[in-house]
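Troubleshooting log. The previous structure file for this entry was overwritten by mistake, so regenerating from the original sequence record. Sequence copied from the archived sheet and checked twice against the printout by T.R.
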Amino acid sequence: MKRSACLLVMVLWAAFAAHAQPVRIKDLGKISTWRENGLVGYGLVTGLAGTGDSSRNKATRQSLANMLSRFDLAIAADEIQSRNVAAVMVTASLPAHARAGDTLDVTVTSVGDARSLAGGTLLMAPLKGPDGKVYALAQGPLTVGGYRYDANNNLAQKNHPTVGLMSGGAIVEVGMAMAGTRPAIETMTFVLHDADYTTAGRIADALNARLGPGIAEVRDAAGVEVQVPESFRQRLPAFMRQLEALTVEPDRRARVVVNERTGTIVAGGDVRIAKVAVSHGDLRITVASETSVSQPALVRQTGPDVRTEVVTNTRLSVEDRDTAKFVPAGGTTVAELVQALVRMKTNTRDVIAILQAIKAAGALHADLIVQ
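Regenerated output below.
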């Protein structure tokens, strides 16, 4: 328990030591139209050591028969009996500025009853976007972070062997820049990762001070509308370089995040607690049972009522420990409160319960997030 308390204090003070510092605008958000696009495809993984789909999986047998027909091999799907092949789904994300020839990371997941994809190789699988067009082709050996071996009713398994990864396993065939013509951009919206009016206002002020008045205007807590100057409309990368290089000091909401499973508490340095009285006690009840044997005095006497008895004696004790009481002064921070509780040898779960009670009392001026 002492170790948990020390870890709790270290996490708190590590968070408090990081004061608000200027941050680049590019780290606070992104342009609204620039996003990744999901790709999905269907394929076959071959080369498995008897851990592929069983013969009951008709989709795998039909897919294998269709693939062999491309190589002038006419084999009926019902005649295929192989457990070295598995039907899989292939997923990837296409970045907003991807170009033909770029490589993508690919995730391969089994859709049949394969036991493991370890040692398998994905055959060429087209990856399509939501519009049904092929944007990338995936092929290559899989990396599986697990295994599964079974024999004679003995099973050994680690992690999920039916999911594999391919680092750079897909090649982009059609980049986003080639997918369609883009009109000249005159206005763009910068979207914040964490919506906040104060931060959005500071971003707009920084852009107006650097690029000229009226360039940026706050639309809501999450969006800043930016007018692209006419001199930069044909040189958008140069404008974005200036925009992303600007730094502002972001504002943040007061939050306290507690994880009850791990006993971790993280709070910002501006989280304060109003004047409040805290009383925390511990009532311990102990029930002890003692079993003894009662032997008759006349061991030689016999009869239906003469026998050995087992007697259980129960003792109940109630211990009410001294109640910990203290009154934090006005303006106390969460760090000071937790430090005081740790000095009183309060365990982590009790600290979390106290913070929840203070929040319910209206004295904790922050959002309490319990994970």
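The chain is about 20% helix and 35% strand. Archived copy saved in two places this time.
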